[in-house]
Amino acid sequence: MRRKTMLRLGGALITLFALFGVWVMLLPYFWMVSSSIKTGIEVFDLPIKWIPDDIQWVNYPNALAKGAFGVYFYNSFVVAFAVMGGNLVFCTLAGYGLAKFRFPHRELCFRLILSTLMLPLEIVLVPTFLVVRDLGLVNTYGGLIAPLAVDAFGVFLMRQSIRDIPDSLIEAARMDGCSEFGIFWRIILPNCKPALGALALLAFRDNWDQFLWPFIVATTDNLKTFPLGLAQMEGIDSAAYHEIMALAVMGMIPAAFIFLFFQRAFVRGITLTGLKE
Amino acid sequence: MGREIGVDRTLPSKIRRLVAGGGKRSLHSHLRWAGFFFVLPALIHLIIFKFYPMLQAFRLSFYRYDLMSPPVFTGLENYNLLWQNPLFHQSFWVSVKYMFGVSIPEWFFALALALLLNRRMPGRSVIRLAYFFPIAMSQIVVAMVWKFMYHPYGLVNTILETFGIGRINWLSMEESALPALIAIGIWRGIPLFGVIYLAGLQAIPKEYHEAAIIDGAGVFQRFFYVTIPLLLPTITFVMVLSLLSAVKVFLNPLVMTEGGPNGTTKVLPYFIYETGFAFFRMGEAAAASMVLFVFLFGLTLIQLRLLRRGGVE
Amino acid sequence: MRRFLMTHLLVGLLTALLVSPAFAQQTRITWWGHSNCSKDLVAEWNKKNPNTPVQYDFFAMTPYFQKLTAALSTRSAADMFTLIDFLLPGFTAKNVLAPIRPEWLGYKDLEDMKKAYIPGALDGYIHKGKLYALPPIASGFSLFINTKHFREAGLDPDKDYPRTWEDVGRIGKKLVKMRGSRMVREGFDFAMHSSTWTMWYFNTTIRQYGGEILDASGKKCLANSEAGVKAMNVRARIAHHYKASDPTVSLGTNALPADDLPKGRVSMFITHAGSVAQFGPKVMKYVKVVPFPQVDPKKPVTPIYGFALAVNPHISEAKQRAVHKVLKHVVNDSKTWYERTSYPHPDKNFLNLPGMEDARKTRYLDVFVKDISNGRFLQRSDKVLELNQAIHRAMERVVLKKEDSKKSLDRACKEIDAALAKK
Fold first, then answer.
1. pLDDT by residue (tens digit) across A50-69?
2. What are the E-state strand segments in C240-389?
3. How far apart are CA A70 and CA B261, in angstroms?
4. Percentage above 70 pLDDT, chain C
5. Which residues of C touch B153 (CB under 8 A)?
6. What is the architecture, at CATH level 2, of domain B84-139+177-309?
7. Closest Cα to residue C142, out of C402, C316, C343?
8. Pick from A44, C329, C345: which is nearest to B144 by CA?
9. Is the separation of the CB atoms in B183 and B189 below 8 Å?
């Protein structure tokens, strides 16, 4: 009995703590939203006024009119979804191969793949650009997407997650005469949904926000992505922070939707870790 | 009581058997190469877009190359120049401090966050979304927003002042500039790795917890004997990746401090970027990258080895 | 949702295939810049010259030079592009800029062309007797003062404004506002956010004391000379002797370095002509612009800088000629530039253009142009960014950590000499 009340009290405390954390996490975000409905002069006013006297909704249409943002958003969607797709397919395949098979030099393969995470993009920028140029992909969607379509991050994540899947399941399917790809499709994929969800989410977000690479590859307006549009608002003539913030708010919406969509992947099969005493 | 001890001893070994991948003699020999074919598409891609450029960068580290005139072979000169450059040494240690300063808190806080969000509580999906927001924020916006938060008259100081703590000019003092940037790294990293932990927690089959409950295991016992061992692959991933992603930070110091004051926030990627693209010494930048590469590669191998000894494989 | 994803994937890939073959136009001229103002000029040009259309692409400032470098190194840069003056030596040393031909712009030669400009205004773009970029704007720095704060302190902004650095410290001290031990309003402050700004101040002050950052060959650092130490002491004295500023405050300020002035957090601040447009007419009502402070007002030296248009050397001569026509169109419209950006044009007759009388009265054009005509460009060196950073670090040590100026500059010179020794 006493233990139960203790637990319940603990639960309430944890919830309170979680709510407090939410505020800390969101504080910068509130500032961003609040700035997006101020006038340019008010943005950096201190002390902060969270809700301005005169709310400037007009910042949103004004900001959108400053560039071909319809095009930028579309391009970002295309790039983010294509790269996400590439990552889901290739990283999962590779992760499965690395987690559940023993082929010669498997560890070497894994380490090589991992090693690609260890050089900053700046240093491979010019050599990578040369590869893309020689493939004739400068200023094309192909050039924006191809070099990012596989990321060692995803291979590593999927390898680690697929390791959790019991071998007995795979063995059983193999006994039943399931093909190797069939095993992948029917056993592995359904069993690593949470990780796939995380990978999809993070790949989308990373590439929605990708800046340096598109900046180098895209030279014309019709191929620029959203972050490039955002960055070019900060020209020397005008530093319109209220409008930049309005765009930034809009730029977060897709990622938030993707999160809500993939959240189900994490939530499914809830949840024993905490309660149910 | 006796049953609980039984849980402690048997469960981990059962799990260990289940988790242990590979080593299955029952795999037919033709299967040996099947795995390779699963890896092949990714490998081909990485060879073209990653390994080849990396090899080029390695080669460049032995050349003098200003990006615009043809490269000139200079042997180990670039490495020698770096060794003699106190600014390189400074950047290296700034990066090491930043890397561990950000990732070690991330390991624990992210796990705590994932455990928290995995609980049943009112408004959970809203809370989850709220915690996720920092990673949805565009990097450039993060830098802009936090620069303003750290302003001498900014939000952080306003909050501190209500607690009676005086104004701290975060970004303009050598003592506080790097910690201020580390705080942003943690703020942004916790939700990211929290999501990955959450996925890992969700993948733990219910049966293990149910079995443990039937055996009478308490919350902590289940955490240490079920959750942690089963989460080890994910923990390994987070420990390795948090270091690798922390060390790449670059935009925040660029936008917020320009590497200052007195070079105390000039992380190595910033040094590399600047040497290559601002000072036009690509060879030296490549050499600095190789130093970073070897350091990170060694660190990762050690981590993987230690974690394996900890009982995953 | 899955179908939605798939369709988008397909659309993306298809578009990728369709768009791939680059547009192969006959004489389309490409231009990379970083200013919105140029867009309208391009639109106007395209209307008049449908046969040689210009495609203008706009890029954000900071990473723009990186893109430019990557593009020049792979020979995929635009036909013409914008550059900031102090980066020129880095590019000319590597032969990646085509010389500007004065004869194609309607001048007899470079000497003839110089006569049409404010004296010295083209110097920053000349290398070994050839012009490598054409500036559509020129900018210097002048002192902006808050007249309200002056009157509050019992000072007359029209008579009592500072002429020398000592004046800045002395008057600045009177404008400071304290709350307890904390400075809530600075009398004066230098921007601390950027090593280039630091160098603009320092390079100018060292010249005011008769010194230079580098020797004539450009291979040896002279910043730790007597003049250099004096110049560094100017900053140290304003902060520590007069206590007219709190140097820790301005490093963390937001992306607009001059923003503390319209916010009333600082009473005097040095900034460029573009700030007039940024502050807006409401603020400019109580802000007055006076000349850049000097060591000796009789021998004035001020900083000057500019953005300029350069030509890609990898294109054919015929195309270069076509680019020059565009250049001419762009720089000839100095009035539009001025109205949009508040940056004056380095044209000698700029002040006498029709319609300028008003700006001379209300927008302090006379002050700016006078300061510009005393202006000298930043130390020319292909290692300029390393110079800037070494001096910036030295300044941070002096101003934030109260290190001795001489000692700090000695260390900076060691760093600079090491950089200069590298090829």
1. 788 788 888 888 888 877 88
2. 266-272, 287-290, 302-305, 307-311, 375-376
3. 40
4. 91
5. 265
6. Orthogonal Bundle (1.10)
7. C343
8. A44
9. no
Residue B148 distance to chain C (closest CA, Å): 6
| Residues of B with Cβ-Cβ distance to C422 under 8 angstroms | 81, 281
Rounded alpha-carbon distances, angstroms, from residue B21 to A98, B15, B16, B39, B117: 10, 11, 10, 17, 29
Asked if A237 lies within 8 A of C274 by C-beta distance, the reply is yes
**Residue C391 lies in domain:** 141-303+381-421
Residue in C60, C70, C78 nearest the CB of A216: C70
Contact A272 B209 (CB under 8 A): yes
Looking at residue C294, the DSSP 8-state letter turns out to be B
Considering the domain architecture, whether residues C64 and C128 belong to the same structural domain is answered as yes
Q: What is the 8-class DSSP label of residue A58?
A: T
- Chain C positions in Cβ-Cβ contact with residue A145 (cut-off 8 Å): 12, 16
Written as six digits, the tokens of C206 are: 């060292």
- C290 and C318 both lie in a single domain: no
User: Which other chains touch chain C, taking contact as 3+ CB pairs less than 8 Å apart?
Assistant: A, B
Instruction: For residue C364, give the amino acid letter.
Output: Y
Asked if the C-beta of B108 comes within 8 angstroms of chain C's C-beta atoms, the answer is no
**Domain boundary residue, one of C314, C332, C350:** C332
The count of structural domains within chain C is 2
Q: What does the DSSP 8-state code read for residue C164?
A: B
Which chain C residues are Cβ-neighbours of B94 within 8 angstroms?
none
> Looking at chain A, which residue has its C-alpha nearest residue C276?
A237
What pLDDT, in 10s, does the model give residues C381-417? 989 999 999 999 999 999 999 999 999 999 999 999 9
DSSP bridge pairs for C268: C145, C188
Please give the C-alpha separations between residue C233 and each of A80, B117, C205, in angstroms, as whole numbers. 53, 56, 10
Whole-number Cα distances in Å, A135 to A147, C20, C317: 11, 11, 29
A residues 145-184 closer than 8 Å to B (CB):
146-147, 149-150, 152-153, 155-157, 160-161, 163-164, 166-168, 171, 180, 184
Q: What was the pLDDT predicted at B12?
A: 46
Chain B contact set for C195 (CB, 8 A): 258
Q: Is pTM, for the whole model, over 0.90?
A: no
Domain regions of chain B by residue span: 84-139+177-309
ipTM over 0.85? The verdict is no
CA distances from A38 to A45, B107, C2 (A): 10, 38, 39
User: For residue C342, is it within any domain?
Assistant: no
- What residue has token string 């009333």? C264
Shared-domain flag, residues C196 and C327: no
Do residue C400 and residue B261 have CB atoms under 8 angstroms apart?
yes
Chain B nearest CA to C356, separation (Å)? 37
**Helix/strand/coil for C122:** coil
Q: For residue range A3-13, what is the model confidence (pLDDT) as tens digits?
A: 677 777 777 88
Regarding whether C242 and C317 lie in a shared domain, the answer is no
